[in-house]
């Protein structure tokens, strides 16, 4: 970070050789990518909000998302999605711990926390796969909605369209995140970052991973709570 | 910004983790334990969104470390988000129209 202190005169800040934002090119571009991704997700979630609140009636989330694996019956609202939320927050924590270990150059700790983060990501994806399978068995898919609206009329098809599109888009992000995590795990084990002298790549991938967690916080609220 | 790098230790990480877990727990209590006769769905929805934004703040500020970045980076990321408010306003207007013509 020594180069960031070389801001001598205002005229020279943008002349190159310095980091005007106090962040490397890669980290800055990761932030800008995440900003654009935030717009993608807000477009999807706001389209959902607009379609939902202009609809005369809508299925009740507590009735739709009320099953958990290996247990019979359909009367556990929010339990399964609560577990999924907890898994993702926990994997975000293990990611910060990996970044923190990277700052100290503690390779073995980075490896340990990255493995836990990857396990968390895979666990989340498995939960989502189960939930999708369960809903699909009930007859829910793009273009078909077996769940009646709150007022008893046939369910709005947009409910399942939006659910599968938005959780699918988010799940795809989680999947990409797991891939990136696996790649940097192997790079760490191969000693790439030790040779580079910096573990900043862990930080960049970590930014992406936290963003995935951030999006889930919003998806959780808008699909399952409201 | 003298504490730029060494500002976020393990115990801070765990503290943020417990804050996020506690906020989620509060959301569950509102959803499952408080009857709708006591608290209307509108108030509940308002609380859900407020708590979600609070959680987002903790994730972005601490986990993504934005709070400890340079001020111009913070503004570069946060200010463009006002466009989202524009979309919210446009879609509220639009969805109001949809529900009238439906």
Question: What's this, in brief?
Answer:
The complex is a heterodimer of chains A (226) and B (102). Chain A has 226 residues and is mostly helical.
CATH topology of chain A: Four Helix Bundle (Hemerythrin (Met), subunit A)
Helix content of chain A: 55-70%
DSSP strand content of chain A? under 5%
Task: Give the termini separation of chain B.
Answer: 55 Å
For the record, the count of structural domains of chain A works out to 1
**CATH-scheme architecture of chain A:** Up-down Bundle
Calculate the terminal CA-CA distance of chain A, rounded to whole Å.
Answer: 44 Å
The overall pLDDT of chain A, averaged over residues, is 92
Nearest-angstrom radius of gyration of chain B?
19 Å
| Main sheet record of chain B | none
Structural class of chain B: mainly alpha
Query: What is the count of β-strands of chain B?
Result: 0
> What is the total tally of β strands of chain A?
0
Q: Tell me the overall shape of chain B.
A: flat
Number of domains of chain B: 2
Q: Uncertain segments of chain A of ≥5 residues (pLDDT<50)? A: none
The assigned structural class of chain A equals: mainly alpha
Low-pLDDT sequence parts of chain B? 1-5
Give the proportion of residues in helices of chain B.
Answer: over 70%
- Compute the average pLDDT of chain B: 89
């Amino acid at each position: 970070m020594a180069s960031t202190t070389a801001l001598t005169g205002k005229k020279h800040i943008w002349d190159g050789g310095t980091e005007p934002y106090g962040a490397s090119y890669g980290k800055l571009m990761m932030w800008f990518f995440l900003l654009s991704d935030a717009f993608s997700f807000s477009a999807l979630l706001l389209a959902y909000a607009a379609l939902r609140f202009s609809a005369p009636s809508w299925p009740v989330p507590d009735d739709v998302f009320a099953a958990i694996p290996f247990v019979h019956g359909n009367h556990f609202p929010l339990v399964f999605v609560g577990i999924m939320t907890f898994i993702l927050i926990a994997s975000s924590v293990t990611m910060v711990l990996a970044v923190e270990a990277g700052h100290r150059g503690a390779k073995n700790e980075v490896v340990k926390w990255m493995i836990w983060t990857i396990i968390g990501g895979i666990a989340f994806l498995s939960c989502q796969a189960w939930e999708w399978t369960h809903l699909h068995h009930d007859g829910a898919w793009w273009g078909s909605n077996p769940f009646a609206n709150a007022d008893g009329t046939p369910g709005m098809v947009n409910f399942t369209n939006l659910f599968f599109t938005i959780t699918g888009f988010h799940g795809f992000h989680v999947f990409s995140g797991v891939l990136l995590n696996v790649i940097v795990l192997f790079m760490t084990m191969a000693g790439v970052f030790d040779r580079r002298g910096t573990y900043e790549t862990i930080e960049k991938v970590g930014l992406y991973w936290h963003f995935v967690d951030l999006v889930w916080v919003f998806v959780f609220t808008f699909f399952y709570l409201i | 910004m003298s504490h730029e790098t060494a500002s976020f230790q393990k115990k801070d990480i765990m503290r943020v983790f417990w804050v996020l877990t506690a906020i989620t727990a509060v959301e569950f209590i509102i959803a499952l334990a408080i009857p709708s006769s006591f608290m209307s769905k509108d108030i509940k929805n308002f609380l859900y969104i407020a708590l979600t934004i609070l959680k987002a703040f903790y994730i972005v500020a601490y986990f993504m470390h934005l709070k400890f970045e340079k001020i111009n980076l913070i503004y570069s990321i946060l200010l463009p988000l006002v466009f989202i408010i524009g979309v919210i306003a446009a879609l509220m207007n639009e969805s109001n129209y949809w529900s009238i013509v439906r």
